[in-house]
Structures are given as structure tokens and as C-alpha cells.
Amino acid sequence: MKKTVLGALTVASFGLPAMAQDSIDVTLGVLNDRSGVYADLSGEGSVVAARMAVADFGAADKSMNVEVISADHQNKPDIASNIARQWYDQDGVDAILDVPTSSTALAVADITAQANKILIDSGAGSTALTGEQCQPTTIHWTYDTAALAKGTGGAVTERGDAKWFFLTADYAFGHSLEEETMKIVENSGGEVVGSVRHPFPATDFSSFLLQAQASGADVIGLANAGGDTVNAIKQAAEFGVTQSGQALAALLMFITDVHALGAETAQGLVLTEAFYWDHDDDTRAWSARFEEQFGSKPTMVHAGVYSGTMHYLRAVEATGSTDGDVVAEWMKANSFDDPLFGEGYVRKDGRVIHDMHLYEVKSPDESTGEWDLYNHVSTISGEDAFLPMEGSGCAFANEG
Q1: 24-32 and 95-98: which strand pairing?
Q2: Sign, Cα dihedral of 108, 112, 113, 118
Q3: Could you write out the DSSP letters of every residue in 11-59?
Q4: Going by C-beta distance under 8 Å and a sequence separation of 6 or more, which residues neighbour residue 343?
Q5: How far apart are CA 392 and CA 128, in angstroms?
Q6: What is the distance, to the nearest Å, from the Cα of residue 254 to the centroid of all Cα atoms in its chain?
Q7: Rounded (10°) CA dihedral 341, 346, 350, 352
Q8: Which residue(s) pair with 345 in the sheet?
Q9: E strands within the chain?
Q10: Of 222, 235, 344, 368, which sits 20 to 30 A from 242 (CA to CA)?
């Protein structure tokens, strides 16, 4: 049967014909930014990652008919909400994947819970997804603002850059990242001397950078992501911010951002990631296959879509169901060990616990190729990286 999908750009099917009596039909919807500031770190690459997961899972050999569709939410909660409702009510979608931009993710999480479906979020960062706005069918896979703050904020403060000024994207993700990093800075003996919020997305950071420059801060914390981070760093270089002695801390930065800036501009930046293509033999092998299909190295968002989809499909196979409450219960009851994130598990609040890694961008002299961009600094265990479930504000997590 032909589907009419609001905003859908791609459709792919895997597995047996739907007429097979003992088959399980599954429809996965990749909902993300396909045309804006997060398109490179998310976008079509997340669709490729989902398809790879379906193929690697071997759905066809397990009597599972899996379809992958996609749409552009344009980083707008109202558009994301409309697509999610149509997908669930009319198009038979069982799970939504990716959903960068925290404001859109929080809206989709509510609709998903009402529909008793599953949201596996790889692209958004707000801790509210597993905190005060948690939902029992939301799985927050890849990273969150607390883990980023613990890694980058802690490392920069400990090296002596004690006075911070924040340049923050004015929406849920930016607010959460600023708040979590402020806690780390102050608990480490540092001081926050000011902050300014910029529109999302933004192109001109000149007035915000001048405020940061005049603040007397040791470090300017960029509580934004994607194209906003890239533009802010480029313009900081143009204004001579770093040459005047102030450091930049990119609190969320992706390999695609560093690649866009180049090692000459980004060298020395410290950043926190859940995944890096060159981390070990397994990540290199998977990333080579991804690059062959997509044309560039994967981000941690792409890796999270792949790993989250694999765990979801295991749950559907094990339970024989696509009901959100049934699948979520299995995903939380069973740990995983995959080639991209290693060992991990899903907590009752939906937070996925796995290691995070601190990296430093290589200098041009150190880099041996266009994607050879990081030096590994340290590993942060999942238990240390993410906030504890107790006291998170998630109403159902501490019941029973």
C-alpha cells in the first residue's frame, strides 16, 4: 500500500513481503533537520545509519518487514509535532528516530507517549528528556548536556581557565547546556562572569562576541551546536578573540563541525563525544562502510541512530510486539554491547548509560588526513558522565 507522508523525503523497505502471515511489520521514521544548521550532523546521514542497522540486523532472515521513512522538521516544534501525529495516526510509524533540537524532541516525546510508540533520540541534548519532562517511551541514546558539561567544562576549568562567559543559543538545548556547565565550573572553583543569548539559528555573532570579549573572561563557552558553533568560532577568529588571550570552549561540537573549520582554525579545541570514527578497529570498520554509502565520516548522532535502531529491533524480535510500553520495558531490561558504543544499558528514566570521551583537535602538523582530527585525551565512564537518576525530576523513574 502506498503511504502519503507529510514532509517525507525518502522511503526504504527491508525484509519479507507484508503478506507473510508470521512476519512483523515495523515502520521507522527518521525525523530531523535535513536543510538547516544541523543537516550535516544529522540529516540524511541518520537515514543511512538506520538503513544500515536494519540490514545488519538481518530483518529479512527474521521474518521482519521493516520500512524506513524520513522527514524534515526544520528545527520547529510545531512542524515536528504535526509530522509525528500524522506518522502515528495515519502512516503506521512504530518508532521515531534522531530528532535533534531539544524543543522539537520534547514535543515529539509527549506525542509519542500518548500514542504508545517509541522515541529513540540521538540528536537532542536537553537533560529534560529524562528529567522533569521524561516519558516512559523515550530512550535518550547518544549524549546530553550534563555529559558534555562534565567532559569539556570540567577539563577546561581544571586546566586553569576559571572565569567563564557563555554565548548561548536561546532555546531548550542551549539553556540546558549553559546551566549544566555553570554547575561544573562553579563546583570546580571557577566563576561565571556573564552570559548572552543569541537567536537560533544565527549568522551574525559580532555583538555577542564583543560582549564576551569585554567581559574579562578567560574562556568563552559556546552553548550552541552545528552551524551556530562553526560560525561563532569563525567570527571569533576574525575579531581576534583568541589572539587576545581568551579561549573558546565548544561545549557541543561534532566531527563535521571540526572538518568544516579545518585543523588550522579548530586546533587545540577540547570537546566531548560519545563516538569518534577512529576510536578503535570496530568504529573504523563501521565508519568505512558508512562513508562508502554517504560520502563522509559519521557523527556521533549517526552512530547513535544506528545503535539505537539495533537495540529497538532486538526488542521487537524478542517480544514480537511494537507496542511502546512492551518494547521500552525490554530495552530497559536488557543491556547491549555494540561495536560503536561498547557496553551500555538503558535506565528506567530512558537515559542510555555508556562511556563518553574527551578529545582535543589536532594541529595541522599532527593530522595525517582530512578526517584525522582528534587526539584522545581521556574516557569518562557512563556512570560518571551522566546525571544520577535520583533527584532528576523524572516522576516515574523512582516509583516502586
Answers
A1: parallel
A2: negative
A3: EEEESS-TT-TT-EEEEEEEEE-SSSTTTTTSHHHHHHHHHHHHHHHTG
A4: 335, 336, 337, 354
A5: 9
A6: 10
A7: -20
A8: 353
A9: 8-14, 24-32, 64-72, 95-98, 118-121, 138-140, 163-169, 191-198, 219-223, 247-250, 270-273, 336-338, 342-346, 352-353, 356-361, 374-380
A10: 368
SS3 string of 344-377? EEECCCCEEECCEEEEEECCCCCCCCCCCCEEEE
CA dihedral 204, 250, 308, 305 (to 10 degrees): 40
Fill in the amino acid letter for 51: R
Q: What are the backbone angles phi and psi of residue 263, rounded to the nearest 5°? A: -65, -30
Q: Which domains does the chain have, with CATH numbers?
A: 8-143+280-353 (3.40.50.2300), 146-274+357-379 (3.40.50.2300)
What is the distance between the terminal CA atoms of the chain, rounded to a whole angstrom? 44
Written as one letter, the residue type at 45 is: G
- Torsion angle (degrees, nearest 10) of CA 48, 52, 54, 58: 160
Would you tell me how many other CB atoms lie within 10 Å of the CB of residue 165?
A: 23
pLDDT tens-place values along the chain, 400 residues long: 333 334 444 444 444 443 444 799 999 999 999 999 999 999 999 999 999 999 999 998 999 999 999 999 999 999 999 999 999 999 999 999 999 999 999 999 999 999 999 999 999 999 999 999 999 999 999 999 999 999 999 999 988 999 999 999 999 999 999 999 999 999 999 999 999 999 999 999 999 999 999 999 999 999 999 999 999 999 998 988 878 889 999 999 999 999 999 999 999 899 999 999 999 999 999 999 999 999 999 999 999 999 999 999 999 999 999 999 999 999 999 999 999 999 999 999 999 999 999 999 999 999 999 999 999 999 999 999 999 999 889 999 977 5
Residue 140 bridge partners (DSSP): 121, 351
What Rg, from alpha-carbon coordinates, does the chain have? 20
Identity of the residue numbered 54: V
pTM of the model as a whole:
0.93
